[in-house]
Design a protein that fits this description.
It contains two helices and two strands. The chain has helices spanning 35-59, 63-70; strands spanning 7-8, 14-15.
Length: 71
């Protein structure tokens, strides 16, 4: 069973439901591009390019002319 702690706030009021989550600090600073995000970005770009080629092959015309004929 979990230990119950009584927490008193700055006004002296009892707060049984207060919970302070543990603070996690990542020592490695990441600014800008991360390897994980760049891998997924590249994978989705490759999937999109292959789908574009499949659409052009199936429609038997270029993507731009296909979009012009639809809209």
């Amino acid at each position: 069973m979990a230990q119950q702690k009584t927490i008193v706030d700055d006004r002296g009021l009892l707060n049984n439901f207060a919970y302070e989550p543990p603070v996690y600090i990542d020592e490695e600073q990441r600014v800008g591009f991360t390897e994980f995000a760049e891998k997924w970005n590249g994978r989705f770009a490759m999937i999109g390019f292959v789908l574009l080629l499949v659409i052009e092959y199936g429609a038997d015309q270029g993507f731009v002319s296909l979009m012009r004929s639809i809209g």
